[in-house]
Design goal:
12 strands; globular; Nucleotidyltransferase, domain 5; alpha/beta; 5-stranded mixed β-sheet; 9 helices; Dehydratase_Activator_Redct; iron-sulfur; iron-sulfur cluster binding
Length: 262
């Protein structure tokens, strides 16, 4: 069984192809170029799979940011929570954990017990706790996200709760002559403090982190002080697309079982 999974994010589109439970291909595109170069609109979004060099899959499943942006013709559509939980279940083999997914413009915290979703919390209203916040602050500091992600020692205090005001506060700290490493650590620690209130509503000792922010070593290091185990997925940015593939495999198995029953 060959499945195509697509996670249409606000900043990047991630794509995974899985055959008989094994990942064959993973790719990412900027969201704007993906819609411009590979999609058309005719009574719904239609994906040109030939232009992507993809064919011969048995089922395709999509998820992503914004209901109207992810309703692709010929795809089974599932919500982001379900896609990311399916991805985390498949990538970790665990059935009891907290899942933190930090996307470009939203944050999702999910409790999973015995393989089932039992509670969720979303933050889609403020950019200050999302990946976009880190991107903007890295731009202000004129360094890459990778460089900033490794700084955690002796962070400066950034107290602004608004992403826009935090940029102004950071510029003020630059003007004071504070060294770059402390500025970067301050940005990472401010992100951690913004996530803490959401995570505090969920009790658990194992935290799985997905999304591009999972690659921020400073942030996962801070989180490690609050949990017995913090797991960064091998493919954190592709977790939603991988989850779509596993959901497709489950649907296919269910249909085969129904045919046998009939």
């Amino acid at each position: 069984m060959r499945a195509l999974g697509i996670d249409l994010g606000s900043r990047q589109v991630k794509l995974a192809v899985m055959k008989d439970g094994k990942l064959e291909d993973m790719r990412s595109y900027s969201t704007m170029s993906f819609y411009r170069n590979y999609c058309s609109y005719r009574e719904g979004i239609r994906l040109d799979t030939k232009a992507l060099g993809l064919s011969d899959f048995d089922m395709a499943v999509s998820t992503g940011y914004g209901k109207n942006n992810t309703n692709m013709a010929d795809f089974v559509q599932i919500n982001e929570i379900k896609a990311h939980v399916y991805g985390a279940l498949a990538q970790t083999g665990l059935e009891d954990f907290m899942l933190l997914d930090v996307g470009g413009q939203d944050v999702k915290v999910t409790r999973v017990e015995k393989g089932m979703i039992t509670d969720i919390e979303l933050n889609e209203k403020c950019a200050a706790s999302c990946g976009r916040y880190l991107e903007n602050m890295a731009n202000v500091l004129e360094i890459s996200l990778d460089e900033m992600a490794n700084c955690s020692s002796n962070p400066i205090e950034l107290s602004s709760t608004c992403a826009v005001f935090a940029e102004s506060e950071l510029i003020g700290k630059i003007a004071e002559g504070i060294e770059l490493e402390r500025l970067c650590a301050g940005v990472n620690h401010s992100m951690y403090k913004r996530l803490q209130p959401m995570l505090a509503n969920f009790k658990g000792r194992v935290l799985v982190v997905s999304g591009g922010v999972a690659n921020n070593a400073a942030l996962t290091g801070y989180l490690a002080n609050d949990y017995d185990t913090v797991i960064k997925l091998d493919n954190p940015q592709f977790n939603g697309a991988i989850g779509c593939c596993h959901y497709a495999a489950r649907l296919a198995s269910k249909k085969v079982l129904e045919r046998h029953v009939e």
